[in-house]
Amino acid sequence: MHLVLYEPDIPQNAGAMIRLGACTGVAVHIIEPCGFVLTDARLRRAHMDYIEHVRLVRHAGWESFRAYQAETGGRLLLLTRHGETRHLDCVFRRDDWLLLGRESAGTPPEVHAAAAVRLRIPLPPALRSLNVAIAAAMVLGEALRQTGAFPD
User: Fold this and answer.
1) In a 3-state reduction of DSSP, which class is residue 31?
2) Closest CA to 73 of 95, 45, 47
């Protein structure tokens, strides 16, 4: 399983997802450019010393990531409020790549088009979205539960 951050804007969210990856044994991929410097103090404060326990892979851009993902294999699943499939209705696989967009702008059309599945978390109609790190935790938790891949 892989957790992928597309051009993240907020270091605290990226740090929280790095910590999530460390605690669940899931690799974290960051597609650059980021809206912050990866050595930013706020990022360090959010992930604390957990970065030592996560497989963190940086990609120079979308094309670089796609080439890496194609070599590695697995399905690309995009978490988006425009998703057709509820995350609870998805049948996850151990080699899935869970992709989350930028906090400020989501992902561009070419990223949407590349996803095998576009997932949404059901919310009340009047609300737009959850915090990206919370959304990542909810969907990753369901994926790990389904695949029996939570660490012991």
Assistant:
1) strand
2) 95
